């Protein structure tokens, strides 16, 4: 187990703490006041706006069980990243959004994720990304507030709590995952390896169906957006939804490419290139077969993916 910490400001910290406490792999949460100009501020001082502090949640997690990418995905689902100093009914600088890091190695991951969010929004993103300067735990009655007061105020959609809880059943510890995956699937998804072109499982697979994340079963691509690019790997014009993937700058092998990962699991999928069909948006998602599991349309219902059949049949 390797424990790490990241700090999220997402409006009222009651809901943000409760949300991350539900994530499999998170081993501890604490609410407090981050980057305050005043040492050991009290709640009333913070509410005055004079301390400069942000209501923030310390998230301690085991990065062998949950990735920073997945935590960021959950965080951005819980906020409006274009809203300045306001989330839900709460207004004030203490309710601003922010990601505060203590590990410099986390910066490229955070910046890449924020850049992907920026590309999906027409309005400016106002989420702070900066080092944690200080963190003062909040008063005891704020800790685990929604656990102690289930009917308490919360600005986060309850459906997100249920979504996060449902992920727990799909999560696998790394040791279990390694036992379940083939050596090639493990190296591709966990270590960023690339399988051989033209001799992989789905390069020439063009039956109707859905492609899901091999590690956690999240639906990622559908057959109606797959085409024969001649590159030697499965190629798609776009994922089912842009929220399902994250993009990261990859400078390995002396080249600058855009890596694609699964937002839910953090698994490496492949790369995206700007040489796809112009009529479909011009993107080519070049994905390793080893990162995917293909489910034919006739099996989708019994496998639990029946809701996606219309996407395939309509296109």
List keywords for this structure.
315 residues, Peptide Methionine Sulfoxide Reductase, Chain A, 10 helices, Metal Binding Protein, Guanine Nucleotide Exchange Factor, Chain A, 17 strands, 26% strand
What does this structure look like?
With about 325 residues, this protein is an alpha+beta fold. The chain has two domains: about 5-170, Peptide methionine sulphoxide reductase MsrA (Peptide Methionine Sulfoxide Reductase, Chain A, 2-Layer Sandwich), CATH 3.30.1060; about 175-315, Metal Binding Protein, Guanine Nucleotide Exchange Factor, Chain A, CATH 2.170.150. The protein has ten helices and 17 strands. Strand 6 (about 95-100), helix 4 and strand 7 form a beta-alpha-beta unit. The longest helix is centred in the middle third of the chain and has 13 residues, at about 105-120. The mean pLDDT is about 90.
Mean of the pLDDT scores?
Answer: 92
Question: What is the string of helix and strand elements?
Answer: EHEHEHEEEHEEHHHHEEEEEEEEEHH
Number of E strands:
17
Distance between the termini: 45 Å
Write the SSE topology.
Blueprint: E1 3-10, H1 13-21, E2 26-34, H2 43-48, E3 54-62, H3 68-77, E4 86-87, E5 90-91, E6 97-101, H4 107-119, E7 128-131, E8 135-137, H5 145-148, H6 158-168, H7 174-180, H8 183-191, E9 209-213, E10 219-222, E11 226-227, E12 235-236, E13 245-250, E14 257-262, E15 268-273, E16 284-287, E17 292-296, H9 300-303, H10 309-314
Parallel strand pairs: 6-7
Antiparallel strand pairs: 1-3, 1-6, 2-3, 2-8, 4-5, 9-10, 9-17, 11-12, 12-16, 13-14, 14-15, 15-16
Helix pairs in contact: 3-4
């Amino acid at each position: 187990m390797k424990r790490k910490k990241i700090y999220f400001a997402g409006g009222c910290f009651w809901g943000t703490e409760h949300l991350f406490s539900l994530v499999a792999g998170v081993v501890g949460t604490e609410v407090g006041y981050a980057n305050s100009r005043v040492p050991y501020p009290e709640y009333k001082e913070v509410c005055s706006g004079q301390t400069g502090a942000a209501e923030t949640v310390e998230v301690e997690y085991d990065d062998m069980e949950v990735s920073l990418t997945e935590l960021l995905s959950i965080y951005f689902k819980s906020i409006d990243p274009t809203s300045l100093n306001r989330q839900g009914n709460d207004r004030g600088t203490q309710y601003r959004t922010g990601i505060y890091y203590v590990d410099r190695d986390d910066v490229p991951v955070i910046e890449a994720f924020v850049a992907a969010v920026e590309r999906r929004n027409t309005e400016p993103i106002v989420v702070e990304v900066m080092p944690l300067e200080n963190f003062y735990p909040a008063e005891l009655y704020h800790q685990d507030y929604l656990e102690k007061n289930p009917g308490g105020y919360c600005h986060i959609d309850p459906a997100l709590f249920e979504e996060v809880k449902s992920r727990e059943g799909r999560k696998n510890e790394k040791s279990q995952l390694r036992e379940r995956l083939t050596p090639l699937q493990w190296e591709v998804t966990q270590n960023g390896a690339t399988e051989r072109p033209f001799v992989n499982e789905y390069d020439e697979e063009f039956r109707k169906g859905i492609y899901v994340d091999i590690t956690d079963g999240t639906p990622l691509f559908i057959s109606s957006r797959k085409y024969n690019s001649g590159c030697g790997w499965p190629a798609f014009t776009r994922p089912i939804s842009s929220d399902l993937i994250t993009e990261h700058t990859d400078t390995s092998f002396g080249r600058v490419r855009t890596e694609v990962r699964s937002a839910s699991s953090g698994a490496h999928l492949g790369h995206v290139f700007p040489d796809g069909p112009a009529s479909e948006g011009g993107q080519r998602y070049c994905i390793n077969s080893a990162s995917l599991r293909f489910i034919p349309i006739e099996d989708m219902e019994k496998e639990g993916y029946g809701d996606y059949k219309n996407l395939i049949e309509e296109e």
